[in-house]
Amino acid sequence: MLYLVATPIGNLGDMTLRALETLKQVDVVASEDTRRTGLLLKHFDIKKQQMSFHEHNEDRAGAAIVKLIQEGKSVAVVTDSGTPGISDPGFSIVRRAIQEQIPLTMIPGPSALIIALVLSGLPVHSFTFCGFAPRRPAARQKLFAAERASRHTLIFYESPYRIEDFLADALTVLGDRRAALAIELTKMFETMLRGTLSELGQEVKISKPRGEYTVVIAGAEEERRQET
Predict the structure, then answer these.
(1) By three-state DSSP, how is residue 225 classified?
(2) Cα 144 to the chain's mean position, in Å?
(3) How does strand 49-52 pair with strand 153-158?
(4) 2-107, what's its fold?
(5) 112-227: which CATH architecture?
(6) How many CB atoms neighbour CB 75 within 10 A?
(7) Could you tell me the pTM of the whole model?
(8) Where are the alpha helices (DSSP H) in the chain?
């Protein structure tokens, strides 16, 4: 059996009982970073064999995971934090398991994009998750242009070292829409910044970059509704 197990994105108190039970019962834990997962397992007094499963070895490690399950073993896949497959390794092993007719399930838990969306104050009934935007300005602007007419709330992940450029490009292409920035979610210094793209751009210029940002931007339809 293959289990995809969501783990806390910051606060260890968000670890679910099902996740703990699953990690205790499986034979192997496939980890994006075995050292980081090792600390998590140690915190909950769980001793398990680990193997690496990350974006640079997905094909080889995926084949090894399938082989283990076909031999009768159970494997849990975890990422550094959050839900496997959401801007983290996981999609490839799900597709491989389906192709090999291997039983699989998900142990749900924290996801930064959902938390940020709900706390943003922007419409939640319809949204598009775009993951990490391209690093290069031209490619990033092209992505924004493709989503410019979308009526859905837009959600992105971004590095603290590129957030200024990200917001500047979003403002140029999308206009001065309402948006929100989520920082350090579930942690002691959790912060939600809300305003227009131009206001948030000014805010991050004077703030010390820290942690990963989740950016929520109003869709085109919402902006038109606010203007009327």
Answers:
(1) helix
(2) 19
(3) unpaired
(4) Cobalt-precorrin-4 Transmethylase; domain 1 (3.40.1010)
(5) 2-Layer Sandwich (3.30)
(6) 25
(7) 0.91
(8) 17-25, 34-43, 58-70, 91-99, 112-120, 137-147, 163-174, 197-206, 220-227
Structure token digits, residue 125: 């009934």
Place of tokens 């290069």: 136
Q: By C-alpha distance, which of 130, 68, 129 is closest to 96?
A: 68
Residue ranges per domain, the chain?
A: 2-107, 112-227
pLDDT tens, position by position, for the chain (228 residues)?
A: 999 999 999 999 999 999 999 999 999 999 999 999 999 999 999 999 999 999 899 899 999 999 999 999 999 999 999 999 888 888 899 999 999 999 999 999 999 999 999 999 999 999 999 999 999 999 999 999 999 999 999 999 999 999 999 999 999 999 999 999 999 999 988 999 999 999 999 999 888 767 889 999 999 976 666 655
